[in-house]
Amino acid sequence: MILETHQLTYQYPSGKTLYFPDVQLRAGEKILIIGPSGSGKSTFLNLLSGVLPNQDGSIRLNGHNYEAQTRQQLDQLRADHVGIIFQSFNLIPYLSGFENAKLSLRFSEERRTNVSDIRASITRLAEGLGLTSEILAKKPEAMSIGQQQRIAVIRALLGKPALILADEPTSALDPVATEQFMTELARSIDPSEQAVIVVSHNPILTPLFDRVVQIGEAA
Fold this sequence. Notes:
Elements: E1 3-11, E2 17-19, E3 24-25, E4 30-34, H1 41-49, E5 56-61, E6 64-65, H2 71-81, E7 82-85, H3 97-101, H4 109-113, H5 118-128, H6 133-137, H7 145-157, E8 163-167, H8 175-188, E9 195-200, E10 211-214
Parallel strand pairs: 4-9, 4-10, 7-8, 8-9
Antiparallel strand pairs: 1-2, 1-3, 1-5, 5-6
């Protein structure tokens, strides 16, 4: 079991409280988290990644209980075991695609030890996602949105983190490109060691996942 959550809730300073369904995620699984705006999809993702502190309930990732971790330990746990594909990609504008992709290894010795040859590993992931060495050499401003997105995916996957989290990764893509992207993402993970959670408001993605978890309106 890669991830388990139980009775998670989150209360904003305004008093609005979000209640989240329990999730159990095994290696190789792809789960879609879907719900309307304001239902807490991004908040749920931030709780799973440890970016937001866990207020109530429990989260267990690869045998580590979030509640037992200090803030520093939780940050390291995220660096070692979680790959995040941000909706805005968060690429560094003055770095090349290759340099952006390898940033995930900078903060995790554990992920670094999983990569015997950084260039070869990035090239292999890039080829699987349809990127050439010429694109890897470009800076983000010289890439298309789809190319930037794939660099962000390589960064998230490099070093084989157990949990891949993606926040609305297909929001800028048309239906054909969306299906292609999700197929490429699924093909790029190691089903024996990694699992994927995607957050979206788009129900067209449903057939591309093993399971769908619905988040309702906030209380």
